[in-house]
Amino acid sequence: MYEEPYKWVEAVGNRRQYLDEQFKQGSPVVGVVYDTGILLMTVSKGTPKLYEIYDRLALGGMGHPADLEKLRFNLLEMAHVEGFNRSPSDVTGSRMVKYGVAPVIKQAFEEVFKAPFIVKILLAELGQKAGRDTFLTINYDGTFEEKNSHAVLAATPAIEQTMLAYLRQQHIPSLEQAVSAAICAWAVGDRAQHQALDETGEHDEGKAGRPQQSTDRDALYAHMRERVTEKTLECALLDRHQKGPSKYRAIDPDELGRLLPKDMNTLLT
Q1: What are the residues whose beta carbons fall under 8 Å from the beta carbon of 67, sequence distance 6 or more?
Q2: Eight-state DSSP code of residue 52
Q3: How far apart are CA 60 and CA 12, in angstroms?
Q4: How large is the average pLDDT for residues 21-50?
Q5: Among 91, 43, 47, residue whose Cα is nearest residue 69
Q6: Which residues contact 113 (CB under 8 A, 6 or more apart)?
Q7: Which residues does residue 62 pair with via DSSP β-bridges, in sequence order?
Q8: Which of 141, 178, 162, 192 is nearest to 18 (CA)?
Q9: CA nearest 137: which of 79, 97, 187?
């Protein structure tokens, strides 16, 4: 009887180790605020990772596609029920997280005889006015944080802090600058994840001579070009100037081609 609490703590610790392993080769997600809205950006292979949730809410995720889809559906259902029963102004990111998805993820994580959600979530909310845009990031154990200006998802908290440190140094007034900053922040995170794999001996090929620590923009662009082969660059907006109640739109390849730096257009071919 006295061993039961210890066994539960040990089981939770084992789940953390297991889940941390699952994210080591996942694609980071970047969210940045610019002058007229919010940009979400990631790289995917086949399955989309950016979605509309409600008029002013968008979601980015990393992890298992089936788990992400299940939680996305839960958020969609809750948002539309809230909007119908109350009003669209009651459908807020904070409410969706605190009373919706975070408790579900926490319960799944702590029930050690059931499978946890292999997922991390970034929920972006466009404010009614500039300066009131927010992000909420949710970890696989149900813990969440609220952020302004920018937010990221990555394999580990340390890598997320490295990406955030890079973004804090950037000036991002326009959409074009937001795209450039998001691409570079993604490269910072992805490169750090692969460097961590190198250090554990899981990826030895090509380790020597790689500019792992440089945050020079050209070096980050080069890493992005190398890593996005046969993958899709996903970008989506919550655009304050878009007509109608829904402010979400995906950036199509033609528009993205105009926003990308000239030497990055190969990402779209």
Answers
A1: 117, 118, 119
A2: E
A3: 26
A4: 94
A5: 47
A6: none
A7: 120
A8: 141
A9: 97
Strands (E), 82-148: 119-125, 134-138, 144-147
Task: Work out the angle at residue 94's Cα, subtended by the Cα atoms of residues 88 and 95, and round it to the nearest 5 degrees.
Answer: 60
Angle formed by the axes of helices 102-110 and 4-22, to 10°?
120
Structure tokens at 139: 């970890």
- Determine contact, residues 43/227, Cβ cutoff 8 Å: yes
Structure tokens given for 100? 């919706």
pTM of the model: 0.91
Those residues whose C-beta lies under 8 Å from the C-beta of residue 180, and which sit 6 or more positions away, are: 217, 260, 261
- 93 forms beta bridges with none
**What domains can be seen in the chain, in order of their start residue?**
26-259 (3.60.20.10)
Tell me the per-residue pLDDT of 67-87, one tens digit each, with 9 for 90 and over. 999 999 999 999 999 999 999
Q: Which residue has the tokens 């609490």?
A: 5
Interval 174-227: pLDDT, tens: 999 999 999 999 999 999 998 888 776 554 444 444 444 567 888 999 999 898
Q: How many helices (H) and strands (E) does the chain have?
A: 8, 10
- Cβ atoms of 196 and 156 within 8 Å: the answer is yes
Rounded Cα gap, residues 146 and 136, in angstroms: 4
Whether 112 contacts 8, CB under 8 Å: yes
Question: Do residues 141 and 109 make contact, with C-beta atoms less than 8 angstroms apart?
Answer: yes
